[in-house]
Structures are given as structure tokens and as C-alpha cells.
Design goal:
This protein is an alpha/beta fold. Helix content is about 30%, strand content about 15%. It has 2 domains: about 20-160 and about 395-545, FAD/NAD(P)-binding domain, CATH 3.50.50; about 170-390, no CATH class. Bound molecules: NADP nicotinamide-adenine-dinucleotide phosphate (NAP). It holds the Pfam family Pyr_redox_3.
């Protein structure tokens, strides 16, 4: 898979067929949509990005909650494009929401993307017109836009999940969702605050809110394995080193299973080491911070139950050593599911926060919380609060796509095809939906999103080149290829410990009541995903049907 790191160096593309408003319509202006726009425009394809929100950035526009920051290193939470390497100043290892949001807006400025982005506009339907072999995209402003290629870049965590909490309508205080945090911020100083949820979002919110609130009560249904982030500021020297080694850094991220700037492999499994060595290695990973604990200690943490339990127990011991109140420490220890069966959050003094006098933890085991005018009731106890912060997660991966009426050949509805879970070829294509391309969509790798987007966009750009060269009007995968890839995606998950424990996890879809457990993501890592993509393109796209009917002679477009 090779595409120049500076868009504009690749030849322009052109396609025959009926006239369209734009060659490409992209749904969503988050990181994936922005990266797609840079690519398609550089290939000479007229493109419009349609975004429901009032600005670009997707999750980084909406998630303005206190403490929001990336869990990936800032310098790989971006694009490996020369145009935005030398003039961007990464400030911290894990960039804050304002820094990340600022970065994506900066990218839009540098590449002059704004004229091709339509904000405050929601895509309601996209219907494939079989006669003209184009897509008809309808938006909530009553407009229809025709295009040859429909690219969905709707984000993996973009549709908030908000359970129906009984009594909320009568709550006398204020309440907020982290996923729709007010732009002007919320002053929590001196207030009694509740946080509901203990996922990656809540784990970022809790230590910050605890500093301002008079009192903070955390409502926990399931404890998480929280890894210390060990954030730090980046010096000018650090930034120089990043800029000088930018290409190698991204090569490393492309090879690292989860798209991070770290080693692809620890080079050992837990059983290779003595118990003393095991503890030393885990301790080094813990002290190094971030996901190094998972990826640079033992290579079998996700696949071997004994190795996983070793790493899980190490974390429990850390929790017990950090949290002074033994009862609270026990409640914070995950005990009945393996490490990584739920996405481990990165903490910024998370466990330490429970040592504060103004912070309490409420265990929801065996209870549903109900809300009363004065606060939150759990069993016999009413916890009086002024403000409730809900951090209850997302209908991930398929939620947003399911809300759009996407119809392929024969009027088939995409969400009806996916009632048992998504089924794709390489996470990017669907049989029966010609020229529908998904960037960082269902069954794409569970990894650092900008890296996943980069891999998808580069591969789709190559596919478009192949179509141009063949004079193809449409590309569509075979049903057999979709079956095989979807089965493989399931098998990869089955080879891990991730299904064990029966706990809810958004990366199986089981955090949403009634949603079937399915392989909604490729858990085999970025490298193996790229190998599968390269195998398809390298072999001349054996699994993809190119429709070249009514081929018009194509005048070779000049190189740009
Ligand atoms: P989440 O991990 O799904 O956590 C949702 C929390 O809400 C869980 O603790 C869940 O409990 C709880 N919850 C749900 N329904 C509830 C109910 N009816 N009563 C009580 N509690 C309830 O969602 P998230 O924290 O928003 O994180 C989602 C993903 O977003 C993360 O895994 C991560 O990939 C991404 N994220 C990334 C970053 C970053 O990279 N910086 C930051 C934040 C989030 P159960 O566990 O029992 O279901």
C-alpha cells in the first residue's frame, strides 16, 4: 500500500457515466472525513463533506467535557502528511480536546478544505440508483446531491447511548451528558456532583471534577482496569525529534497492532519468564504509562488466559496499594472479566482521586439507579446532588450508520442486512452496495483512529485508481468475500480472551440492551488488516467486481 505522503503527487482520476453534482459525497467531517476529503480532492474528484454538527472534528467537537484528551500519543493522533508536520506544535503526550480540535481545524485551513464542507446538515438517506449507477443523497435541508461514490466517515463512537433513567425529568438540579458538553463550559465549583459511569470518558472526567466540586459521588456499575497515562509536556526538543522522525514514527504506528507509536511486539510471552521477571516487566510497563502496559510487556495478554490473569492481578494489586480505603479499593478492582475484555481507559490520577475526602464511590451491583428531585437513589439510600454528569457511552460502530437510510441494489436497506451485526469486505465495502466506501467503519481495525483512517483512505485511493485505469463505473465486493471476511473477523475475536466474562463492551455491541454480540471490529491489529488489504489489491482485486458497462473513452487526465 503506497501513496505519497503529500496529496497532490498522485495522478488525477476521472470516471465516465451520467453527470453528478459531486463525484464524492463524504458523510461526516471528523478525522476520517477530513482525511478522505484531502485525498479525493487531490485526485481531482469533486467532493463535498456533509456534517451534521456546526463544526468539523466529530467526537473532538462534541466531547468538550472536563479532562477530555486523547489516549493515543498526540503525534500519531493526526495525519502523516508533510503539509501538517512542520507547523504543528504538539504540546503534551496526550493532547487535550482543545488541542486536538485545534489540530483538525488547522488541517482544514492548511488544505483549504472549508469550501467543500457543508456544516449543520444531516444526511437522512442515500439511495443507490441502479439505472444511472450513482448515489442520491438526501439531507435534512431538503436537498438531493447526486454522486458516484458515497463515503461514510461517521465515526466509531458518534451516537451517544443514553439509558432511560426513571425520574430524570423531575430532577431539580442540572444534568449534562459528556458527549454533548456545553461549549461555554459548566461551573461545578462548590457543587455536589454525581458522575454516572466509569468508562474511559468518566475516568477522564472524575479527577478533574473532584478538584472543583464540593463533593463528588461516582456511580459505578462495572469497574475498569485503568492504566496510568503518565502524561507529560513535550519540550521543543521532543517536538523537533518527532518532526525529524515523522515517517519512521508512522511506519511504526502502521506496524503496531493498535496503531500507536510503540513496539509492534514485546518479543516474549509471559511463560518465558520467571515470576520475578514477570513482575519486573509488568512494573516497567506500568511505569512507562499508557498502553505500553498492554503492548510492550507480554505478547499473549490478549490471547492467553494465564498471561491475562497475571497482568490483571498486577493491576488489582496496584489499585489496592493506591486506594487507601480497603472497601473502595475492592470495589474498584475488576474481578470477573479479563483485562481488555472492556476497553481499558487511561487514567490521570484516577485511583488516587478516590483518596480525596470529597469523593465517594457507589457500587450499583444489584441495583438500577433511579432519579428523584433531590438526587440519585440506589436501594435505600438517596444521594443528594446538585448536578449529574452522565458518561454512559455510545451505540458504537453501527449506531450512526443505522440511523441513515442507506439503500443499495434492489432497495435493500443496509441496517436490515446487519441485524445480526455488520458484514463487510475489509471493513470498507459491502456486497449489494456498489461504490459505497466506509472509512474507519464497521469491521475496520480496533486501533488509533487516524491511523485506521489513513490505511482505509490509502487503500480506497488505490481502488479508485484501479477503477479509473479499467474504465470502471462501479466496484462491489463478492458476497463470498464478505462472508469470508466477516467469519474471519469473528474467528479473530474468538482466538482472544475478549469474549470471556460476559461483560458489556462496546466493541462487541453488548453495551446496548438488545444489540446482538457481533464482531463489529477487526481485532487482529492494523498490520494484519493491511496485509489483507494489500493481498486484495496486489492480486488485482479478485474479490471485487468492476462494472465497465457503457464504458466511455477516458481522456487521460493530466498529472497534478
Ligand atoms: P463506555 O466505556 O461504554 O462506558 C459507559 C459507562 O456507563 C460504563 O461504566 C457503563 O457501565 C455505564 N452505564 C451504562 N449504562 C448505565 C446504566 N443504565 N446505569 C449505570 N451505569 C451505566 O463509554 P465511554 O466511557 O464513553 O467510552 C467509550 C469509548 O470511547 C472508550 O472505550 C474509548 O474507546 C472511547 N474514548 C476514548 C477516549 C480517548 O481516547 N481519550 C476518551 C473517552 C472515550 P457498564 O460498564 O456496566 O456497562
Amino acid at each position: 500500500m503506497s501513496t505519497p505522503s503529500s496529496p497532490g503527487q498522485a495522478p488525477s482520476l476521472s470516471f465516465s457515466g451520467v453527470d453528478v453534482d459531486r463525484e464524492v459525497v463524504v458523510v461526516g467531517a471528523g478525522f476520517s472525513g477530513v482525511r478522505t476529503l484531502i485525498e479525493t480532492r487531490s485526485r481531482g474528484l469533486s467532493t463535498v463533506v456533509v456534517e451534521a454538527g456546526p463544526d468539523i472534528g466529530g467526537t473532538w467537537y462534541w466531547n468538550r467535557y472536563p479532562g477530555a484528551r486523547t489516549d493515543s500519543q498526540a503525534w500519531v493522533y493526526g495525519f502523516p502528511l508533510a503539509g501538517v508536520r512542520d507547523d504543528w506544535r504538539w504540546e503534551e503526550r496526550f493532547a487535550t480536546q482543545p488541542q486536538t480540535y485545534g489540530y483538525i481545524r488547522h488541517v482544514a485551513d492548511v488544505y483549504d478544505l472549508w469550501p467543500d464542507i457543508r456544516l449543520n446538515t444531516r444526511v437522512e438517506s442515500a439511495v443507490y440508483d441502479e439505472d444511472d449507477r450513482i448515489w442520491r443523497v438526501r439531507t435534512d435541508d431538503g436537498t438531493e446531491t447526486t454522486c458516484r461514490f458515497l463515503v461514510t466517515a461517521t465515526g466509531q463512537l458518534s451516537l451517544p447511548y443514553f439509558p432511560d433513567f426513571p425520574g430524570l425529568a423531575d430532577f431539580a438540579g442540572e444534568w449534562y451528558r459528556t458527549s454533548k458538553w456545553p461549549e461555554e463550559g459548566v461551573d461545578l465549583t462548590g457543587k455536589r456532583v454525581a458522575v454516572v459511569g466509569t468508562g474511559a470518558t468518566a475516568v477522564q472526567v472524575i479527577p478533574i471534577v473532584a478538584q472543583d466540586a464540593a463533593h463528588l459521588t461516582v456511580f459505578q456499575r462495572t469497574p475498569n482496569y485503568v492504566l496510568p497515562a503518565r502524561n507529560d509536556a513535550l519540550s521543543e526538543h521532543d517536538v523537533d525529534v518527532i518532526r525529524k522522525n515523522f515517517d519512521e514514527i508512522f511506519d511504526r504506528a502502521f506496524a503496531q497492532p493498535f496503531g500507536m507509536d510503540m513496539s509492534a511486539s514485546a518479543g516474549r510471552v509471559a511463560a518465558d519468564c520467571t515470576p520475578q521477571e514477570q513482575q519486573q516487566i509488568l512494573d516497567r510497563g506500568w511505569e512507562a504509562g499508557g498502553f505500553r502496559y498492554l503492548f510492550e510487556t507480554f505478547d499473549d495478554i490478549l490471547t492467553d488466559e494465564a498471561a491475562n490473569e497475571l497482568a490483571s492481578e498486577f493491576i488489582r494489586a496496584k489499585i489496592r496499594s493506591i486506594v487507601r480505603d480497603p472497601r473502595t479499593a475492592e470495589l474498584l478492582c475488576p474481578k470477573d472479566y479479563p483485562l481488555a475484555a472492556k476497553r481499558p481507559p487511561l487514567g490521570h490520577y484516577y485511583y488516587e482521586t478516590f483518596n480525596r475526602d470529597n469523593v465517594d464511590l457507589v457500587d450499583l451491583t444489584g441495583h438500577e439507579l433511579t432519579i428523584e428531585p433531590a438526587g440519585i437513589r440506589v436501594g435505600d439510600t438517596l444521594h443528594e446532588v446538585d448536578v449529574i454528569v452522565f458518561a454512559t457511552g455510545y451505540d458504537a460502530i453501527t449506531g450512526t450508520l443505522d440511523r441513515i437510510e442507506i439503500r443499495g441494489r434492489g432497495g435493500a436497506l443496509l441496517r436490515d442486512r446487519w441485524t445480526e451485526g455488520p458484514r463487510t469486505y475489509l471493513g470498507m465495502l459491502v456486497d449489494g452496495f456498489p461504490n459505497l466506501f466506509m472509512v474507519a467503519g464497521p469491521q475496520s481495525p480496533f486501533a488509533n483512529i487516524p491511523v485506521v483512517s489513513e490505511v482505509c483512505v490509502r487503500w480506497l485511493s488505490e481502488l479508485l485508481t484501479a477503477m479509473h485505469e479499467r474504465g470502471a463505473v462501479t466496484a462491489e465486493p463478492s458476497s463470498a468475500a464478505v462472508d469470508r471476511f466477516s467469519r474471519l473477523t469473528e474467528e479473530v475475536i474468538d482466538a482472544t480472551v475478549l469474549r470471556r466474562g460476559g461483560k458489556t463492551s462496546w466493541y462487541l455491541g453488548t453495551n446496548i440492551p438488545g444489540k446482538p454480540a457481533a464482531a463489529v471490529m477487526w481485532l487482529g491489529g492494523v498490520g494484519s488488516f493491511r496485509d489483507l488489504c494489500d493481498a486484495e489489491s496486489g492480486a488485482g482485486y479478485p474479490e471485487i467486481t468492476f462494472d465497465t458497462r457503457d464504458r466511455q473513452p477516458i481522456a487521460s487526465a493530466p498529472d497534478r
